[in-house]
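Example record

The entry below shows one chain as it appears in the dataset: sequence first, then structure tokens.
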Amino acid sequence: MNIQMCDLKGQYLKIKDEIDAAIQEVIDSTAFIKGKEVSLFQDELASYLGVKHVIGCANGTDALQVALMALDLKPGDEVITPDFTFIATVEVVALLGLTPILVDVDPSTFTIDIKRLEEAITPKTKAIIPVHLFGQCANMDEVMRVAQKHNLYVIEDTAQALGADYYHSDGRVAKAGTIGTIGTTSFFPSKNLGCYGDGGALFTNDDALAAEIRSIANHGMKVRYHHDRIGVNSRLDTIQAAILRVKLKYLDSFNKARIEAANVYDAMLKPCSKVITPARAKWSNHIFHQYTLKLTGVDRDKLQKELAAKGIPTMVYYPIPLHMQKAFDPYREFNLGRSFQVSDTLSNSVISLPMHTELTDDVIKYIVDNLMVALKE
């Protein structure tokens, strides 16, 4: 079997005619930057998410950076993030001269630990960046409670959970990324809604903040050649927007296919005593950007090699927690005395199996059968 961690080609072939036509229309128009497809996509994504403003940008990392810039934080201000996440979430904090404060995560959902979050707040804390990791939301009711109590901004990192539903304790349902001050996402090709290059976006219901974000992402301009502040050049190009318009129509069905594949994995792996399948938070559905297991008493490196020999790719997200990364040595003093036991354990025990919209039951069975053999289950 030709098994992929993420089968982008298989997905493309199913919608090839629509994608090809959308790209060709942009090429025919030659409006490669700020073409009509960009504003149309922003409006359509805003409608899908139920948010007032969507502002496209060049990538998900830029989205996080622009969000922080729009909040006018000052050097030395502290921003709290989970320790167990991709580096982009935290590196933008450091790039802007802010102080990244890392906290441990929940051992079941891998999202920010609310108790650790509250313990990390100081008079210098100005913002929280909860990460909706692997396809499900952080506990946003609790994040927002803490934020409101301490008058903090909340930037939702939604790069891995676009389209996920959050279930508020009062019965309301909201899309991931629309609850905090600003939501951000990435359209990296492997994401649940991915383009065919780089792309990203920010979301907000605040009119003034949306205007500021648009300005920052466009060299600090609100009126052409009038630069009101220092900004950046971060645009979603028209071809990527055209591709995303097509794929947005299929996002719910794409996510449904991932959930169904995860359900099959769960059922087939149930007898296996050496793996713990992904937890499903009560406050969020899980749309499985990744299908990540926790291994117990297993040599992970050996397991990966044995599966690779059978043509089964696996990945480790993430092998080194952020508090152990060399890049964050300058900030180690700010995190002294804080426990990262869960992040450390996860980094040594997680493994992600193939997950994408084109997975079939036969492929999943082949993966699980070989996994069970390798684990001697």
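Notes for this example: The chain has two domains: 8-248, 251-375. The two ends are 22 Å apart (CA to CA).
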